[in-house]
C-alpha cells in the first residue's frame, strides 16, 4: 500500500477534528450560540437607528461576523493547541510519519467548518429576528466571500502562532480570551468604531480585527454609511492588504515558533 | 545479527547540567533491550534522542541506519519504520478505540489490520468505547496499539505497564515477546525490575548520564555468583545465612534435621537488589 499524501491525511484529520469537536457538546453549543445570545442582547438594548436606514443590529451583525472569524480561528486554536500539547497529542503525532502539514490542514478544515456554521447562524438569526438586511449586489457578496476566506486564513495562522504563548493548556483560555475581548472592544464590535477615543482607534488599526469589522460593514451597511467611517470610505484595498500582511506575519511567526512538545 | 541501534559517546547537556555524558550502546535486531536507571539518570534524554525528539550535543547515533536528527522526507520515511509508546498521554479521549487505531493506520506505508491490533492488545470489548471512558490499563494498551499499528521494525516502550493488573501485565509481556518473534526489536524503559527480568534479553543500567553495565538480567552486577541466602526455621525462629556454596549448606542442614528442613528457602539476590546496589542504594 502506498503512503497517502499530506493532503489526503490532512483531510482525514479534518474529519477526525470535526468528530472530536462535535463530541464535546457543551463547547459546541456554547461556541455556536454565544454570538447569537450577544446579538439578541445588543439587538434588544440598542434598537435605535445609528444613521438613516441603519439599525444598530445591522452594524453589530457586521462586527459579530468579523468576531466569528477571530473566535473560530484564533481563539479556538490558540486555546486548543496548547491543550493538545499538554495532553501529548502533538508529541505522539510527531513520533509518527504523519506530515506536519496534515495536522495544520486538519485544523484549517475544523476552523473553516465552524466559521461557516457561525456566520450562517448569525445571518439566519439576524434576518429572522432582528431585521438584518442582506447584501443585494453580487460584488458585495464577493467581498464577503473574500473576507471570509482571507480573514479566516489569517485568523487560523495567527491562532497557530499564538498557541506558543500560553504556558499551559489549562491557562490558555485565560491568556487568549482577554486578548480577543479587548480587541473586540477596541475594534468597533460592541460600539460604533468612530465613537471610540482616538487612541483606541489607532491601537485597533494595528490589528486585523478592526479591518475585518470594517470589511464586514462595507458588505452589510449601505454605501452611504462609508462617509461616516474614519477615512470617509470603506478602504477595501487597505483592508485586504492589512489582513494579508498579518497572514504573512502569522505564517513566519508560526513556522519559527511552533513547538510539538511542552517545554 | 544486524545492529539496529548504535550509539557512541553520546552527550547532551541542558545548560550547566550534563544529562548524558558519553553513552555507548549497541542493540541488535530481534533483541528486547531494557534501559534501567533512576529518574534524572539520563534515561529519558537518551531514549528521546534515539526517538528523534531531541537533538544531541555530540556523539554518533544510528537508529535503523539513520541519524534520528534527520529532518524532512527522509526523517518521515524513517518514522514509518519505528513505533513509539510514550509515557502517559491523555489525548484521543473523544475518539473511540477503533477510530483512533484505524486513523493512525493511515499514516503508515504498511500498517497492520486495526481490528487485529485491537484484539492483540486485548481491547476487543472496548473497540467502540471512547478513549476517555477507558481505565488506566486500557488506555495504556491503546497507546501500545497506536505504537505498533505501523508494523514497526523497532519499538520504543516507555514505562509500558504502569497501571496494569498482574494478569494484564503477563498478557502484555506475551504480546511484546510475540512482536519480537516476528522480528521487531524492542527498547524498553521501565521502573519494574521484574518486568525487565521477565522480558529483556539484555539490560543496561544508566546513572549520572553514563552506562554502568550492560548484561543479561541473570548476570548483571555479578548476580549469578553473588552470595545466596539460605533460610530455614529452627527453635521457633527464622534463621538465615549467606553462603557462597548454598548446596553444601543445605546438605549440612539436611543431615542436622535428619530429612526435611522446615521452611527452607534458597535465594539469590534479585535483579532489584543488584540494581539498587549499582545505583548506590538509593531508590529514586
Low-confidence stretches of chain B: none
Tell me the overall shape of chain A: globular
Helix content of chain B: 25-40%
Taking Cα atoms only, what radius of gyration of chain A do you get, to the nearest Å?
19 Å
Strand arrangement, major sheet of chain B: 5-6-7-3-8-9
Structure described in brief:
The complex is a heterodimer of chains A (263) and B (284). With 263 residues, chain A is mainly alpha-helical.
Descriptive report:
Helices cover 74% and strands 2% of the residues of chain A. Chain A has 10 helices and 2 strands. Chain A has a two-stranded antiparallel ribbon. In chain A, α1 packs across α5, α3 (56-87) runs parallel beside α6 and α9 packs antiparallel against α10 (236-257). The mean pLDDT of chain A is 92. In chain B, 31% of the residues lie in helices and 27% in strands. Chain B contains 9 helices and 12 strands. The mean pLDDT of chain B is 89. The chains are: A mainly alpha (263), B alpha/beta (284).
Q: What are the SSEs and their pairings?
A:
The complex is a heterodimer of chains A (263) and B (284).
Chain A: H1 6-23, H2 25-45, E1 49-51, E2 54-55, H3 56-87, H4 89-94, H5 100-130, H6 138-162, H7 169-186, H8 198-206, H9 208-220, H10 236-257
Antiparallel strand pairs in A: 1-2
Chain B: E1 3-14, E2 17-28, E3 32-36, H1 43-50, E4 58-63, H2 72-79, E5 82-85, H3 97-105, H4 114-120, H5 136-148, E6 154-158, H6 166-181, E7 185-189, H7 193-199, E8 202-207, E9 210-215, E10 228-234, E11 237-243, H8 246-257, E12 265-267, H9 271-278
Parallel strand pairs in B: 3-7, 3-8, 5-6, 6-7
Antiparallel strand pairs in B: 1-2, 1-4, 8-9, 10-11, 10-12
Amino acid at each position: 500500500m502506498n503512503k497517502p499524501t499530506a493532503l489526503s491525511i490532512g483531510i482525514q484529520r479534518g474529519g477526525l477534528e470535526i468528530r472530536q469537536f462535535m463530541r464535546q457538546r457543551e463547547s459546541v453549543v456554547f461556541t455556536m450560540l454565544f454570538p447569537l445570545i450577544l446579538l439578541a442582547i445588543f439587538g434588544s438594548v440598542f434598537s435605535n437607528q445609528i444613521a438613516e436606514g441603519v439599525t444598530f443590529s445591522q452594524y453589530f451583525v457586521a462586527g459579530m461576523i468579523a468576531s466569528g472569524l477571530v473566535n473560530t480561528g484564533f481563539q479556538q486554536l490558540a486555546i486548543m493547541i496548547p491543550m493538545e500539547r499538554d495532553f501529548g497529542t502533538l508529541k505522539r503525532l510527531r513520533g509518527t510519519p504523519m506530515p506536519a502539514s496534515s495536522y495544520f490542514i486538519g485544523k484549517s478544515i475544523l476552523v473553516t467548518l465552524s466559521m461557516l456554521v457561525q456566520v450562517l447562524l448569525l445571518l439566519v438569526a439576524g434576518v429572522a429576528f432582528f431585521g438584518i438586511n442582506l447584501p443585494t449586489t453580487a460584488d458585495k457578496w464577493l467581498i464577503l466571500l473574500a473576507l471570509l476566506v482571507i480573514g479566516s486564513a489569517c485568523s487560523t495562522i495567527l491562532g497557530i502562532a499564538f498557541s506558543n504563548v500560553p504556558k499551559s493548556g489549562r491557562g490558555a483560555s485565560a491568556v487568549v480570551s482577554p486578548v480577543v475581548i479587548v480587541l473586540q472592544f477596541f475594534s468597533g464590535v460592541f460600539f460604533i468604531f468612530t465613537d471610540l477615543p482616538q487612541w483606541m482607534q489607532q491601537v485597533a488599526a494595528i490589528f486585523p480585527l478592526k479591518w475585518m469589522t470594517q470589511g464586514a460593514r462595507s458588505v452589510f451597511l449601505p454605501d452611504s454609511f462609508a462617509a461616516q467611517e474614519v477615512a470617509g470610505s470603506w478602504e477595501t484595498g487597505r483592508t485586504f492588504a492589512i489582513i494579508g500582511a498579518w497572514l504573512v506575519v502569522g505564517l513566519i511567526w508560526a513556522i519559527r515558533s511552533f513547538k510539538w512538545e511542552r517545554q | 545479527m544486524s545492529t539496529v541501534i548504535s550509539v557512541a559517546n553520546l552527550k547532551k547537556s541542558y545548560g550547566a547540567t550534563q544529562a548524558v555524558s558519553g553513552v555507548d550502546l549497541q542493540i541488535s535486531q530481534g533483541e528486547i533491550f531494557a534501559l534501567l536507571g533512576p529518574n534524572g539518570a539520563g534515561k529519558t534524554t537518551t531514549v528521546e534522542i534515539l526517538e528523534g525528539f531531541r537533538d544531541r550535543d555530540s556523539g554518533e547515533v544510528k537508529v535503523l541506519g539513520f541519524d534520528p536528527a534527520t529532518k524532512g522526507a527522509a526523517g518521515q520515511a524513517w518514522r514509518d519504520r519505528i513505533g513509539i509508546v510514550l509515557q502517559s498521554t491523555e489525548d484521543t479521549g473523544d475518539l473511540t478505540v477503533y477510530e483512533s487505531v484505524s486513523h493512525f493506520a493511515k499514516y503508515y506505508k504498511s500498517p497492520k489490520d486495526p481490528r487485529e491490533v485491537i484484539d492483540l492488545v486485548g481491547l476487543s470489548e472496548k473497540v467502540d468505547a471512547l478513549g476517555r471512558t477507558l481505565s488506566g490499563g486500557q488506555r495504556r494498551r491503546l497507546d501500545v496499539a497506536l505504537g505498533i499499528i505501523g508494523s514497526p521494525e523497532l519499538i520504543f516502550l516507555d514505562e509500558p505497564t504502569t497501571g496494569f493488573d498482574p494478569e494484564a501485565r503477563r498478557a502484555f509481556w506475551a504480546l511484546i515477546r510475540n512482536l519480537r518473534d516476528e522480528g521487531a526489536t524492542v527498547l524498553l524503559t521501565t521502573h519494574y525490575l521484574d518486568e525487565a527480568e521477565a522480558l529483556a534479553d539484555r539490560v543496561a543500567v544508566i546513572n549520572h548520564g553514563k552506562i554502568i553495565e550492560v548484561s543479561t538480567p541473570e548476570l548483571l552486577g555479578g548476580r549469578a555468583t553473588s552470595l545466596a541466602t539460605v533460610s530455614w526455621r529452627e527453635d521457633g525462629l527464622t534463621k538465615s545465612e549467606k553462603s557462597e556454596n548454598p548446596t553444601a549448606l543445605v546438605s549440612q542442614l539436611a543431615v542436622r534435621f535428619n530429612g526435611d528442613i522446615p521452611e527452607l528457602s534458597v535465594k539469590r539476590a534479585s535483579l532489584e537488589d543488584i540494581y539498587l546496589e549499582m545505583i548506590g542504594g538509593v531508590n529514586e
